[in-house]
């Protein structure tokens, strides 16, 4: 399949790997963007957005948990301005939250997946995930699964309601509105938390992953123990994870801050561009340093595999010692942070390398993190930059 776009000569390996993804690694349609020193070095797209439609320059798609990076950024913008204290109790901004053992929960606990609310204990009504206030209210009333701050577990579907509600309480604007007005519009991003209806024709529908040869530990626990938190994550989601529902107009129109973002590689890389350059007009250089620090790490209480999180972002995770598909992580340099999305999409920045990166696709992979398609692109970028060593002892020879 033809690869379209531009690629500066030093990054020719990125184009070669992108073409190899389409030709040999099961890629259906995808985009990749690399920004170095604030300038676009790679902006490629190719394949099929849908069976009857090629992936075009302006094709956008569902980036799943890459959305968490956008949501976290909104909180950090407020924190950098002094409007939000990340070390303050959540009840300072959201008084109703402080019931059933959650009074000591700090804002940073929400961002670091330490809040103890990775799932609702009871099933919500159908369509509840499209009502952010309802979901936030349900979570505020709920007893946590563990004492906040004592452990971490991936808040796969609830992260956006928790952090988004704090953003709403502090700013007086919904999460999607705040992101659009304070991040997307100033940066000129084609990135949406709440997609306008007139843009539906540009969306590449999700192509579900092929069944894995062996289920991840998360799924084994979820299906083997109906009383587990893993089972609640899958079962108590109001129908959002039903086949095809995430591609519905209702899903695209909603401001689902954990998994609902719609953009392309250009949008992801563009969002991280100011952070790769020291913060730009979004956050101060001092606050940017805080954003890059690991806030929680170790065996994840929900995913049952090692994870490393900064405050709202994924850090480098080396799970190669685990059996597939748990072996997928995110092999980045230790100075990088961003977020992966279900199926393999990723956006991140590496301030030490003055790098911003985005990769999106419609055909999902089956693992927990960045699969070989995305990792091949990341590796090619670091090789092109001449970085000699990355996370986990991987050597990137120029």
Descriptive account of the structure:
This is Beta-lactamase-related domain-containing protein. InterPro entries: Beta-lactam-related, Beta-lactam/transpept-like, Beta-lactamase/esterase. Residues 18-366 form the Beta-lactamase-related domain. The chain is α+β, with helices and mostly antiparallel strands. It has one domain (3-71, 180-393): Beta-lactamase (3-Layer(aba) Sandwich). Helix content is 30%, strand content 15%. It is built from twelve helices and twelve strands. Strands 1, 2, 3, 4, 10, 11 and 12 form a seven-stranded antiparallel sheet that branches. Strands 6-5-7 form a three-stranded mixed sheet. Strand 10 (337-340) and strand 11 (346-350) form a beta hairpin. Helix 1 (12-24) runs antiparallel to helix 12 (372-385), helix 2 packs across helix 6 (175-187) and helix 7 (217-224) packs across helix 8 (229-235). It is globular.
Helix content, binned percent:
25-40%
Main β-sheet, in a few words?
A: 7 strands, antiparallel
- Superfamily at the CATH H level? DD-peptidase/beta-lactamase superfamily
Roughly what fraction of the amino acids lie in strands? 5-15%
Cα-atom Rg, whole angstroms? 19 Å
Query: What is the approximate shape?
Result: globular
In the CATH hierarchy, the architecture is 3-Layer(aba) Sandwich
């Amino acid at each position: 399949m033809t690869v379209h776009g531009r690629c500066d000569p030093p990054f020719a390996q990125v184009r070669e790997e992108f073409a190899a993804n389409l030709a040999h690694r099961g890629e259906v349609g995808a985009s990749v963007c690399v920004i170095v020193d604030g300038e676009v070095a790679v902006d490629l797209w190719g394949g099929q957005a849908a069976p009857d439609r090629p992936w075009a320059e302006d094709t956008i798609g569902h980036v799943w948990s890459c959305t968490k990076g956008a949501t976290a950024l909104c909180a950090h913008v407020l924190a950098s301005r002094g409007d939000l204290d990340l070390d303050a109790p959540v009840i300072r901004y959201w008084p109703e939250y402080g019931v059933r053992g959650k009074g000591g929960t700090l804002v940073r606990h929400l961002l670091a997946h330490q809040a103890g609310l990775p799932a609702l204990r009871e099933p919500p009504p159908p369509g509840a995930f499209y009502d952010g206030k309802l979901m936030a209210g349900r979570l505020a009333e709920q007893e946590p699964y563990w004492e906040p701050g004592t452990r971490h577990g991936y808040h796969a579907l609830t992260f956006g309601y928790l952090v988004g509600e704090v953003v709403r309480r502090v700013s007086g604007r919904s999460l999607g509105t705040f992101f659009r007005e304070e991040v997307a519009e100033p940066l000129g991003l084609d990135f949406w938390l709440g997609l306008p209806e007139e843009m539906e024709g540009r969306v590449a529908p999700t192509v579900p992953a092929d069944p894995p040869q062996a289920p991840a530990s998360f799924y084994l626990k979820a299906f083997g123990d109906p009383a587990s938190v893993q089972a609640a994550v899958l079962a108590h989601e109001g129908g959002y994870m039903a086949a095809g529902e995430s591609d519905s107009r209702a899903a695209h129109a909603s401001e689902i801050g954990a998994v609902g973002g719609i953009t392309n590689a250009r949008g992801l890389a563009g969002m991280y561009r100011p952070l790769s350059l020291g913060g730009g007009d979004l956050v101060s250089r001092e606050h940017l340093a805080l954003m890059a620090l690991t806030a929680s790490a170790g065996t994840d209480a929900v995913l049952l595999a090692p994870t490393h999180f900064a405050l709202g972002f994924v850090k480098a995770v080396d799970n190669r010692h685990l059996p597939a598909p748990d072996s997928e992580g995110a092999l980045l340099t230790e100075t990088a942070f961003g977020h992966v999305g279900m199926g393999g999409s990723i956006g991140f920045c590496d301030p030490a390398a003055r790098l911003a990166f985005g990769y999106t696709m419609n055909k999902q992979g089956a693992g927990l993190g960045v699969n070989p398609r995305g990792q091949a692109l990341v590796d090619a970028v670091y090789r092109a930059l001449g970085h000699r060593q990355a996370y986990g002892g991987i050597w990137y020879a120029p």
